[in-house]
Design goal:
By secondary structure, the protein is an alpha+beta fold. The chain has one domain: 3-Layer(aba) Sandwich (Aminopeptidase), CATH 3.40.630. It contains four helices and seven strands. It has helices at about 10-25, 40-55, 100-115, 135-140, and strands spanning about 1-5, 55-65, 65-75, 85-95, 120-125, 140-150, 160-165. A seven-stranded mixed sheet has the order 1-2-3-4-5-7-6, with helices on both faces. Strand 4, helix 3 (about 100-115) and strand 5 (about 120-125) form a beta-alpha-beta unit. Helix 1 (about 10-25) crosses helix 2 (about 40-55). The radius of gyration is 15 Å and the shape is globular.
Length: about 170
């Protein structure tokens, strides 16, 4: 597996769009409803990678050969009073590649990059129903709490959101 920072290129945007469409179709709560159109997915990744090109975030991709198997975003553009903090977002792994340590490797890479940039606190949230809470807890993230009925699940119905944090680089 190779993990690399992603940049705005048509083939990368297309691969990311396929990944987020698949994730949403399989119930992944990543801010979109099913069915997610290709146009909406492409527009999201174009904007996200443009923000990465401006240094506001890093979008990491995990590859098995030429195939994008997973991604995670490290949000770096925090308010002036939070220069020590970054946020983990949009953690996704292709369905056929789940259970192979891809998400764990992506998360570890994001943590390392954050620490190298002087960040000492990471935050994230995940859906209470069918989210990645188990992964985050295995990676030593601390549960801060749950907000009930925070968002709609991709196929409908409300779910709570679990908030996590982790101190790093200290």
């Amino acid at each position: 597996m190779n993990i690399t920072a992603l940049h705005s290129q048509p083939a990368i945007i297309e691969a990311l769009a396929e990944l987020i469409i698949e994730t949403v179709a399989h119930g992944g709560s990543v801010s979109f409803m099913h069915p997610l159109s290709r146009e909406k997915a492409v527009a999201f990744w174009e904007a996200s990678l443009a923000a990465a090109d401006r240094g506001e975030r890093m979008v990491l991709g995990a590859y098995d050969g030429d195939e994008l198997t997973g991604t995670v975003t490290l949000l770096l553009d925090c308010p002036d009073n939070q220069p020590h903090r970054a946020e983990i977002a949009k953690m996704m792994t292709r369905v056929k590649h789940r259970g192979r340590g891809i998400a764990r490797a992506l998360l570890a890479a994001a943590e390392q990059i954050a620490a190298e940039r002087g960040k000492t606190l990471l935050t994230l949230d995940t859906a209470e129903d069918e989210g990645a809470a188990g992964l985050y807890e295995k990676m030593n993230y601390q549960k801060a709490g749950v907000i009930p009925d925070f968002a709609l699940k991709p196929h409908g119905g409300l779910t709570g959101t679990v908030l996590y944090y982790k101190r790093i680089g200290q």
